[in-house]
């Protein structure tokens, strides 16, 4: 029974809880058993909170018995380890925060606690969310459950692998340039980046503040809508939070696409794309047409500049945000130093990994005197043009569809020494962050035995249209529920 339980979606598990066919404690014990069974091969967790999870599960069972539960009450879940958890370590998979235990919860953590979700642990990531493969974790790389010799994507590789491997019913990740959607594509699950500001960033340890957004990684689209219901909404503690009353996103889930206008941006079928990925996307478009959608060609000509814009803006904001890690107030501190300045330098030298250092240096250079106008200011100007191009296309279309990633999961170590090739993994996803619009990746088939993902984007606060397209496509195919792997 335990193995069958961990393959359920969150809403299926919730149905069993409501019918008293299973308890939250049983769900949690089955999940912990699954973690013990596969975690030494997958390595999706930095921390497993066994005792806390069982305590929360017992409380969830009490709430369910009393009839005071919420849709996620009693469901075992994971949080990416860059979201603050009161009393539970939050490391960002970095040596500099290895011993850090926050004295407060992130807003999303707080909301899920209030709803009675069960925290099973914290997910591994590329250090400070900087990477596309989870090989940049200071602790260990995470392995893709479909093929343990391959990456799960990144930076939310731990969350994607955990959900795909049955180690959590859902997880929350952060998406700065594709870090929820790309690993979801590579691991064969659903991953959503909401509109910038729809979900509070309070308590999310910042990488690039104008790009970061928290989103769910789930086994199907309905779960994605349910989790978004739980975490969306205005938060006065986050100055970028939108004053907006979210609807019930599950009401947008309809099985047809009659009258829905879908655009296919020609610029997203890039040179070097894996043939199987393009083929899966073309077939997905045919499915949408058969469901009643009106398909047309879209054009976003400045898409080719998005990668350059992102790798100026994101490192610049990272350079500013990571200046706070000096070894004085919290985190790792180098004690073997001759002076205060020597201590600062050695703390950052030994506390940060090579990719984080690379991005800090890139950002500091872009912001430095004499280069600010040439790089950072120009990047912001092009960002405005990219956003305006999306606005124009959304006057014609309700949603845009394209591949999530140009390739399926690559071998561990294959790209780690080539930063440019690694950065190109985000070429399809990062425009949504630059424009602040929502995007979702749903499974679209297989290429050479590995999952592919279809990406759907909508206008700002257009999550309902996006979820409708994703759900109708998912229901018309048999790719959902394909998580797991013969390798496990």
Strand content: 5-15%
Give the end-to-end Cα distance, rounded to a whole number of Å: 17 Å
Poorly predicted tracts of residues: none
Per the principal axes of the C-alpha atoms, what is the gross shape?
Answer: globular
| Average pLDDT over all residues | 94
What does this structure look like?
With 488 residues, the chain is an alpha/beta fold. It folds into three domains: 2-256 and 410-475, Alpha-Beta Complex (Amidase signature (AS) enzymes); 262-301 and 381-396, no CATH class; 303-377, no CATH class. The protein is 40% helix and 12% strand. The protein has 16 helices and eleven strands. It has helices at residues 2-5, 10-18, 24-42, 50-66, 107-115, 157-164, 181-187, 221-231, 275-290, 303-321, 340-351, 354-367, 373-396, 419-423, 430-435, 463-475; strands spanning 45-48, 76-80, 118-123, 170-174, 190-193, 214-218, 261-265, 294-298, 399-403, 439-447, 450-457. It has an eleven-stranded mixed sheet with strand order 1-3-2-4-6-5-10-11-9-7-8, sandwiched between helices. Helix 6 packs parallel to helix 7 (181-187), helix 10 (303-321) crosses helix 12 and helix 10 (303-321) crosses helix 13. The radius of gyration is 21 Å and the shape is globular. The chain starts with a helix and ends in a 13-residue tail after the last helix. The model has no long low-confidence stretch (mean pLDDT 94).
Summed up:
The protein has 16 helices and 11 strands.
